[in-house]
Amino acid sequence: MPLMTSWVESANSPETDFPLNNLPYGSFLSDEGETCCGVAIGDMILNVTTLEADGLIGIDGEEEVFFLGDWSDFMALGAPVWAAFRSELMALLGADCEDPQALVDYLVPQVGTQMLMPFHVSEYTDFYAGKNHAVNVGTMFRGPENALPPNWLSIPIGYNGRASSVVVDGTDVRRPWGQLKGPDDTLPRFEPCKRFDFELEMGAIVGTPSDGPVTVEQADDMIFGYVLLNDWSARDIQAWEYQPLGPFQAKATATTISPWIVPKAALEPFRTSTPERERELLPYLQEPRPMLYDIALEVGLAPEGKDETIITRTNYSVMYYSSAQQLTHHSTSGCPMNTGDLLGSGTISGTTKDSRGALLEIAWGGQEPITLDTGETRSFLEDGDRLTLRGHARGDGYRIGFGTCAGTVLPAAKDPFASSL
């Protein structure tokens, strides 16, 4: 599919994240202090909430879907409504629009506009579905002969995370306190995390809910769109707490997502298949068609006040399990899936050191520190470091991007329990 042209000139650049082919959904704070739904087009935001209020756009049979300024109500309406609304947006913003001048006042510059959480996160589940990441981490902790758990090639492993700590791009993240392993396993200590890390992931957002098991095809139909996702991780807290039930406080500090939800329809030209299976999956997990996407990803690290170094480049297509497979497995117990459920893909790592999706892997547990372009070294994140995730799919003369997924590490707060000791 070639570039679709718009009367918004900045949307026709081959390097914008937001051509007419994309039209991602976000929420922003207007100059009047109101929370509004917006659609990114070039370097502008189309104010959908105001358009709806003025009767220039709307959903048949529905009133004030965008009044509250987030996309949750719209997400629950399902794929036919999503498709019809997208077609309406394309007509309004396309080069053939009959009266673009009537829409100019509904455009807001992206620069200087505060972006907000674009939907209400109902639940958050994080998966462990990247084979290269799983092999690297398993090799570090269990040796190469036992790198993958026995179930890994048969099941998308995951855990229930914290919806309350999901934040949007640009939110600062404070270094957490936690219980760390002491000189021996019986004498832990309570200290700020010393091995704070990022995880490069994609997030799939559930639109239509379910009540009972769903097939992979049905799961794919339920997915509203995708975001970039950084699952901040306290590795030393995790090392002490994770047996026998897995991550808990180590993953509860924050999970950052990009501000724009790229609709699944925009990613259709970039579908690709999951890899060949080393062990045949059970029938319920087998995919009827390609369910992954060819999305180039990168992570930049900038020390406080200094230039950024790109520390990894990889691609979403290396994942072993797709979001649709993860969603299907999530539903097998009869677990209801809700509008606004967020599924983290798991860390996305390639086969080379410069394509690994976490510092734990890049610096190999701290044994092989990396050198930044500034000359500094890193094994894990230091206070003041700013992490920025970026991603895009490349089409014929255009790209489908997500904006940035960034956050700065703040120093740990004063001991929160000092006054009670």
Characterization of this structure:
The chain is globular and about 70 Å long. It is built from nine helices and 27 strands. The chain is α+β, with helices and mostly antiparallel strands. Helices cover 16% and strands 26% of the residues.
In the CATH hierarchy, what is the architecture of the largest domain at level 2? Alpha-Beta Complex
In total, the number of strands is 27
Radius of gyration: 22 Å
Count of spatially separate domains: 2
What ranges have pLDDT less than 50 throughout 5 or more consecutive residues?
A: none
- Binned, the helix content reads 10-25%
Beta percentage is 25-35%
- Give the CATH class of the largest domain: Alpha Beta
Q: What's the mean pLDDT score?
A: 96
Instruction: Look up the CATH topology of the largest domain.
Output: Fumarylacetoacetate hydrolase, domain 2
The number of helical runs is 9
The CATH superfamily label of the largest domain reads Fumarylacetoacetase-like, C-terminal domain
